[in-house]
Amino acid sequence: MDKDNGRVFALLIDADNVSPKYLSAIIEEMTTKYGSLSYRRIYGDFTETRKKAWKEVLRDNSLTPVQQYENTVGKNSSDSALIIDAMDILYTGKVDGFCIVSSDGDFTRLASRLRESQMYVVVMGEEKTPRSIRMACDKFITLENLIESDDDEPKKGSSGKKDSRKRQQVLDRKFVISLMTDIINDNDNNGRATHLGELGSKIDARYPDFDTRDYGYSTLSKMVEETEGFELSKKGTAYYVALATTDRKGDVYAFARDIILKNGATGMNISELSNRIHANYPAFSPKAYGYSQFHKFVSSIPGAHLYSEENGKRVVIEE
Predict the structure, then answer these.
(1) Which residue, of 30, 97, 174, 211, has the fewest CB within 10 Å?
(2) CATH, range 173-243
């Protein structure tokens, strides 16, 4: 995504579920990466004492407050007002997308409905945001990723790269590497190189809450560049990603055969073998060798013999 694509967004903020400390970062993220903001509205009961912090930042950021009194105890009238306004804006036909800022899963259906109308939907919420709305949008952004805490400051003697944040809902890094490998392999099989932007788009399409900042990287290119098993190259102004040649064919076969042999006549469980291979070759995928499953790849190792045991399959080398 790039603001040069000319997309126009409506920014709708749920003041009941978001802290004002994120506001500047929210606007910067949207205007530098996604497009311009034609509507900037925030919903809540600003007569409440706890909303005082919001009142102090509204004017400086050109936000239009939509005052909603709590008419019924336990009912959030702000949610209803945001949803109604979103549909009204949709029918004007004057925007290309929406940015909904809330950690409330109640907006899941709204996000889905807007996407059904061909709107590009960005949702921003805190770590606690439910999985349902994360998957209902085109792109989910964790608000904690947008600002630096004291713990994010580089310490003396460090490389300056931020440590990745440990979060419950963050995709496992090994899974992300496997996903990138599959995408690159699919393109290779179709005779195409993988453009860096295409790689990011395909990951976002499957997992809208994917964010390289969760792993300590500011950009996807930096993550690819520093992940063993991938090669980043530049052609003109475009960047392309490929699997490192050292991860291919003979090297992996030789590595796998060697560690199996070191286990002697007892061999080893193929789950353990898989862990060892992935630890040494992070971008490894059996699909690169023409096999849909790992045990079929193991069967192709010269001299390998598989047999079943209580904990799965075991492999030995018979010479």
Answers:
(1) 174
(2) 3.30.420.610
* DSSP letters spanning the chain: --GGG--EEEEEEETTSS-GGGHHHHHHHHHHHT-EEEEEEEEE-TTSGGGHHHHHHHGGGT-EEEE----STT--HHHHHHHHHHHHHHHHT--SEEEEE-S-GGGHHHHHHHHHTT-EEEEEE-TT--HHHHHHSSEEEEGGGGS--GGGSPPTTS-SPPPPP--TTSPPHHHHHHHHHHHHHHHHHTT--EEHHHHHHHHHHH-TT--GGGGT-SSHHHHHHTSTTEEEEEETTEEEEEE-GGGSTHHHHHHHHHHHHHTGGG-EEHHHHHHHHHHH-TT--GGGGT-SSHHHHHHTSTTEEEEEETTEEEEEE--
Report the amino acid identity of residue 273. Answer: L
Domain boundaries, the chain: 3-147, 173-243, 247-317
d(CA 34, CA 8): 8
Rounded distance, CA 305 to CA 204, Å?
A: 40
The model's pLDDT over 232-245, given as tens digits with 9 standing for 90+, comes to 998 888 999 988 76
- Whether the per-residue pLDDT at 153 is higher than 70: the answer is no
Average pLDDT over residues 150-160: 40
Separation CA 125–CA 123 (nearest Å):
7
Q: Does domain 247-317 have CATH number 1.10.3470?
A: no
Please give the pLDDT value at position 150.
Answer: 42
Give the architecture-level CATH label for domain 3-147. 3-Layer(aba) Sandwich (3.40)
Give the pLDDT band of residue 220 (cuts 50, 70, 90).
Answer: very high
- Distance CA(270)–CA(293), nearest Å, equals 12
Residue 166 has pLDDT above 80, yes or no: no
In this structure, the chain runs to a length of 319
pLDDT tens per residue, range 242-295 = 887 654 557 788 888 888 888 888 888 988 898 888 888 877 778 767 677 888
